[in-house]
Structures are given as C-alpha cells and as structure tokens.
C-alpha cells in the first residue's frame, strides 16, 4: 500500500468515527445552549454553509441563514423551516460594508445580539490544476477581508454568557504556513507570520496586499507564493493568521464575556466550489465547524482544526 492509499484509508476510518460521534446526542450537562441561542452562518444557501446551518438548527439553536442572493436564501430557509427547524433568513454580502452594517443593525434590533458566528462565505475560481489569479481581488476580498469585517462587526454584538461566545472560521489546509507542499517560500515572512510576538493585523494585511500587487504586474509567479490554488491559499493563510491574532487579543476578556475563535479545514468537499469532485460529503465537511461552535466547557481558542482534531498552522 502506497502512502496515498494509507492516507485515504486513515481519512475514511476517521470519517467513520466522526459519523458515529455525530449520532451521540449532547448530554444535558454539556448543552450550554437553548432555543434562544443565536447563531449566524454566512454564505449558507448551499454546500458547507447550508449543512452547518442545518446541523446547528438540528441541535435546537436559532440560526440566521445569510447569503448574497435573497431569492435563493429565502427558498433555502423555507426548506429548513418546513423541516421544523428554527432558521430565519437575512441578506448579507460580506464584501459590502453597507450590507454588513444593515445586517448588524437588524440583528441588534431583532435579537439584541448573537452567540455564535460561523464565517463560511468564500469563493474560489480555479478548478483542478488551474491556477489563474485573474480573480485574486475578489478571492481576497471575500475570503479574508469579508471574514475579518464580519468578526469586527459581530464582536460588539456577542452576548455575555458563562459558556462564552464562539467564532468559527471555515479555512483550508492550503493556507498552512508550514505545510510541506504549499507554503510561502519567503522564510523571513513565514517566521514573522508564525511568531505570536510579531504577528499583527498590519503584517497580515500587508502580506495579502503585496500578493495582490504582484498579481497585477505578473511578479507573483516568482514571488514565492503557494504553488497550488495560489489566490485561495493566500486568502486562507490570512484567515488562519487572523484567527491566531484574534485568539490572542480576545483571550484578555473577563469571565462571562469570553469569545472563543478557531478555524478549521473541512477537507475537499463535494460542493459547487469544487465542481462536485471532492472526496468528502458536505455533511462531513460541516461537522468540525458545528463541533467547534458547540464545544462545552472552556474550549481552545486561536487554534486550527480538521476532523475534530487540532492541527498545526
């Protein structure tokens, strides 16, 4: 058996374990949430976002399903409501500051705040071995800045509780700093991004802006960026770094006002984004995101996960 076959066998075994874990209900002791607990899921009209919404609602939470397209979002919400789930819809475009402001005001007026934010909205325009950066601006704006701007908008609306509020960022192993195959070649930059003391919002923003600048003049090809799905990988590298940064910043909040933030890789999921050629179902791809959102006790923060296990950045 070659290494690829062994990895596939391990992954399939782990997914079977997780499918079994998913059938075990949370005990009353571990259920820190109620039907009044409010979760927001971005980009939730299909794929992983839809599954995260459905699974959170199945656990008895109130879930706000958001999407750019109101018609599709309303239709999707209606399907979930007809299944007896407590899901409501609101339009949200994470790259539009006015849309985020309108949504935030509506949330505050309607619910007074939220308890869980799942940043799932994301785009990728490359299929298979394609590696165009033609849409890099859109990819970075949606995947990184959209996620960052939603976090900043929702933090003031996170309701105090003994269990703490939760932020989950859907990310990717493609954005790992120290991955063997797809990492940034600039050792100094990698060390700066890896070091909690030097990591800053300015460093992360500067990294993605430098990448975007290089996509305009063509120098990105020799710029030492990840080789596979480059624009998407850079956007997710930024999401991972920002998750670590916010984990550190938010850890200073007092008891009763805690906010736990983590990111996770759902795997290569069969969705429209992968042109349905992934090797994991949307249900399995959503699992770790839901698990992180509902973790009982004092969960980890500023960490990266896959298949319900912590992995390295």
TrEMBL record:
Which protein are we looking at? Short-chain dehydrogenase/reductase
Q: Which PANTHER family match?
A: (+)-NEOMENTHOL DEHYDROGENASE, SHORT-CHAIN DEHYDROGENASE_REDUCTASE
Q: What is its EC number?
A: 1.1.1.-
Pfam families assigned: adh_short
Leading EC class: oxidoreductase
**Record flagged with keyword Oxidoreductase:** yes
Q: What family does the database annotate?
A: Belongs to the short-chain dehydrogenases/reductases (SDR) family.
What are the annotated GO cellular component locations? membrane
Task: Indicate whether Transcription appears among the record's keywords.
Answer: no
GO molecular function per UniProt: oxidoreductase activity, acting on the CH-OH group of donors, NAD or NADP as acceptor
List UniProt keywords, sorted A-Z: NADP, Oxidoreductase
What organism does the record attribute this protein to?
Answer: Dillenia turbinata
